[in-house]
Amino acid sequence: MRFLDLLSMSVNNLRRRKLRTALTVLGVIIGTASIVVMISLGIGMKELQMELVASYGSMTAIDVYCDIYSQQNSSEEPNYMKDETIETFRRLPHVKSVTPMLSTYVMMIQGKYRANVNLIGVTREYMEEIPLGQGSLPAADSKELEMVVGNWVPQNFSDGKSSGYYMMGGSNTETSDVDLMGKPVFVIFDTDAWYQSQSPSEDSSVKPPKKYLVPVAAMVDGGEGNQWNEYYYNVYTDVEQLKSQLKKIFKKKPIPGQPTNKKGKPYNYFIYETAKVFVDEAENVKQVQQTITDMGFQAQSNSEWMEQTKQQSNMTQMVLGGIGAVSLFVAAIGIANTMMMSIYERTKEIGVMKVLGCDMGNIRNMFLIESGLIGCMGGITGIGLSYFISVIVNSFAGISKTMVGVEGDISRIPLWLTGSAVVFAVLVGMLAGFFPAVRAMKLSPLAAIRNE
Question: With 80 as the cut, is the pLDDT of residue 441 above it?
Fold first, then answer.
């Protein structure tokens, strides 16, 4: 018997029992929709967590730390991170680039407003990775110190007469006149001297330190709503130019943030508290990170968080998928029950087919096709219902970027899940109909003909 003949007979058999078929298909629809929605929630939460971790920085970047202060007070020879150390990092296998990060706290002043900010000297390669909202990076051959300012830095400005404050997002009406790109910005590097000059002691009076006019070349792009990002609250400049500026200002005096020797004298080289090492591939991050750790430095990367997040998300996804699978299992029982009832009602028909010489495999295949059709109809309709439920869930439970730093749908149904769900529903239907089909195939012809 041809497959098309078997398919036609199976469709006609299902159409003769419309209500029973509809109820069985309904069970498959609910089961398929349940498992797809549950898995889509797991996928959505996993991807949102991955995007959140990725928003903290590159997956191929390693943050290296040197505990300057504990080493300074240690009796052992300090293992500082110097320019020679940075070159050692660059020569490590799989390392693409390295940027030292020279941090110093300065005061930015514009008109009557001022703000204490973290000025970080970085390489040109690092600055090229910063997303810009206004302006452009300083020219590569520029000899002038220029700044790239984080998008939330303007909110840290306060009236010089007030104590200062910080606002989390939104607009600061009191500092709305701060325009870092349009108006001159002065920077005080020797903040200790500035504070001492504002509150001189009885014995001596400290002169106010010099203010330097430093142009703002660009502002970090905060996206829609001026959101936070990896660069939102710092100010960046060229590391070599920052070194030159600090040497010129402090000369032989200790530079704030730089350690001193046992005699309290500054070193004749700069020491970095942090550095970023960029690896060629994400799978090589762990190896490079371990090498740096063995050198006596602290190292961490987003890949560690990503691995932990993946493990947690996979467990959550398995639990959610298991909950949905229960519904599909119940639907499979319904399919098996429908096929068994069909065999009892069509016993005589089966007997006649056997007496006429119908192949046993054809009888089995007919029931398998029927159960497969039930699974297919339920699977396709269940997918449609899943998309509808997913839209509703995302409308009421979508993640806003203002909440966690990323935005997106919490329920995500990829194409592979759509196809897999339909195939899985068909397979479940055929498996549920397998034993009834085998029973029909083994039914005695004479007993079946006598049965009424």
Answer: no
